[in-house]
Amino acid sequence: MSEDRKNLESKDLATRSITDVLHRYCAAVDSYDADTFAALWTDDAYVDFGERYRGKPPGFQALLIRDRNRTLSMAHQIEEIVIDLSPGLSAATSRCIVSAAVIRISGDGRKRRLVRGRYEYRWVLTTWQWLIQHRVYR
């Protein structure tokens, strides 16, 4: 197999792996799956969720869990995923458009809202998998 072919296959695998983690992130947030959520981050990871939260992933997860008491359902959808890999395939950046349909308890009824924005990530390849090192929501 040529070196170019191996490089192309490695890039394709990296792109698919990062995309899989993005989907697992959304599913973990939607289902409040603490174990899956915690497994997606590097030890030094940082989350920037704008004015609502800036800090380590466990604090962000705690915010989501506090909000869960008022949330009946949440469903994330991501699209337009763009992944840029480092030359050595040990790091990457990505961005994607995110939509979240949220149904919350509001007074005597339910309030539906659609939240849209962009996720921007920095990734690190560990021995076992791609992990999120930095995440920004815009």
Give me some keywords for this one.
48% strand; elongated; 33% helix; alpha+beta
Secondary-structure blueprint of this entry?
Elements: H1 3-31, H2 34-38, E1 41-48, E2 54-55, H3 57-68, E3 71-85, E4 91-106, E5 109-125, E6 130-137
- The radius of gyration computed from the alpha-carbon positions, rounded to a whole number of angstroms, is 17 Å
**Based on the structure, what is the oligomeric state of the protein chains?**
single chain
Strand content: over 45%
Measured between the Cα atoms of the first and last residue, the distance is 42 Å
User: Based on DSSP secondary structure assignment, what is the total number of beta strands?
Assistant: 6
Strand order of the largest sheet: 2-1-6-5-4-3
Name the poorly predicted regions.
none
Proportion in helices: 25-40%
Q: Which geometry do the CA atoms define? A: elongated
Largest sheet: 6 strands, mixed
The mean pLDDT is 90
What structural category arises from helix and sheet content?
A: alpha+beta
Report the order of strands and helices: HHEEHEEEE
Count of separate DSSP helical elements: 3
In words, what does this structure look like?
The protein is built from three helices and six strands; from the N terminus they run ααββαββββ. With 138 residues, the protein is of the alpha+beta class. The longest helix has 29 residues, at 3-31. It is elongated, with a radius of gyration of 17 Å. It starts with a helix and ends with a strand.
